[in-house]
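Task 17 of the worksheet. Students: predict the tertiary structure of the chain below and write it out as structure tokens. Keep your answer in the requested format; marks are given for formatting as well as content.
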Amino acid sequence: MTSDTTISDTGTEISLENVSFSYGEKSVLRNINLHIKNGEFVSLLGASGSGKTTLLRLLAGLEKPSAGTITDSGRNITAPSLQRSFVFQNYSLFPWFSLRENIALAIKKAHPELSRARRLVLARKHLELVGLADAVKKYPFELSGGMQQRGAIARALALGAPVLLMDEPFGALDPVNRSRLQDLLLSVWRNAERERKTVVFVTHDVDEAILLSDRVVMLGSSPAGIIDEIQIDLPRPRSRRILSESDEFRRLREHIQNRFRAEVSRALGGIVTGDGDAI
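Model answer:
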């Protein structure tokens, strides 16, 4: 199949070499080797507790590996950077600022040379992107969880970082807004004015991973290693209706689900039935 995906051939943007991580004596990740190209969209899939969020925090520089190295454009990742923007599961908006002020603060951090008036204009523009134009003056406590998450996504996009790290960003959203923001994310990523962002996206949703990604990386049970990497060669732009009718989409979904079942069986030390139940 052909695709309109254009990934930079300037070399690997993010590289993890033999990375392991432990909380005290508890091993969470073990011997992770992963290379993410500049402009690639990669989804991380795995069961709860498999270390997906921990891996994302390592990429952000919020945690340091117990062993191995992580680099971004050849430079070791040792601390957070404006080159990598993070969308957390828990929204992480400042409660004492309005939604627009939250976004403007992020813009100030990335672009201190801009005037306050210009920052507020850009903040409104990014809130309009995620459907929050009518909520710019509201405070986080006045917003639903889904609206707060949309605000957090607007803030991440406003930073303009070349790397976007997203930890189940659509998990709190209703199906309509989830689909809308999936489309928005793909549009922003696909139609970048300059270089396409590198996106690392954590999700539990197999269909979402296939819809969004160039590649799906599956993590096994803790201490987690990579158990599979699936290239998604479906053409872009992707239509949900067309994908639902695609034999290749169904094949990819079945392959990923079967890998999950096999991993559950291995972790439980049993076998898995055709319905996915371990016995």
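Marker's comment: The chain has one domain: 12-239. The domain at 12-239 is CATH 3.40.50.300 (Rossmann fold).
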